[in-house]
């Protein structure tokens, strides 16, 4: 087997494992927290931005952090706002930008969701 074929085979294996982990996470998150994986990833991205010292994240930062398009990110932000997980406001430095902040409820969701992620990884990797 050539090196290229071996790399592609490894990549395919990693992709399958990743999909299985995400499917397992989706089930756990939906069952226990009523969230989808993209919503949980968005909250984690926002939390990591806060931990990095920025305090707030812009909509474009969230799009980059989740790998979603601007329009998909806007829809995601609307869902998170409706659930009381984030607040948004116009940025003071640039009135065209939207700043996003996690609520206390979101911090609780992240605390409860982190073990679900670990559980999903453990179940699939075994």
Strand order of the largest sheet: 1-3-2
Distance between the termini: 27 Å
Count of helix runs: 5
Which blocks of ≥5 consecutive residues have pLDDT under 50? none
Structural class: mainly alpha
Tell me, rounded to a whole number, the average pLDDT: 86
Instruction: Tell how many strands the DSSP assignment holds.
Output: 3
Radius of gyration: 17 Å
Helix-strand sequence: HHEHHEEH
Shape: globular
Q: Percent of residues in helical segments?
A: over 70%
Strand content: 5-15%
Largest sheet: 3 strands, antiparallel
Topology:
Layout: H1 3-33, H2 37-51, E1 57-58, H3 59-66, H4 70-82, E2 86-90, E3 98-102, H5 104-125
Antiparallel strand pairs: 1-3, 2-3
Task: Describe the protein in words.
The protein is mainly alpha-helical and 126 residues long. It has five helices and three strands; from the N terminus they run ααβααββα. The protein has a three-stranded antiparallel β-sheet. The longest helix has 31 residues, at 3-33. The relative contact order is 0.15.
């Amino acid at each position: 087997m050539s090196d290229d074929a071996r790399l592609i085979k490894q990549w395919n294996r990693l992709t399958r494992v990743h999909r299985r982990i995400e499917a397992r996470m989706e089930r756990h998150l939906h069952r226990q927290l009523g969230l989808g994986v993209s919503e949980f990833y968005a909250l984690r991205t926002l939390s990591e931005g806060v931990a990095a010292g920025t305090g707030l994240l812009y909509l474009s930062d969230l799009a980059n952090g989740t790998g979603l398009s601007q329009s998909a990110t806007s829809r995601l932000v609307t869902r998170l706002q409706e659930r009381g997980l984030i607040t948004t406001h116009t940025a003071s430095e640039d009135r065209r930008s939207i700043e996003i902040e996690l609520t206390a409820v979101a911090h609780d969701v992240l605390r409860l969701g982190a073990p679900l992620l670990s559980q999903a990884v453990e179940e699939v990797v075994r």
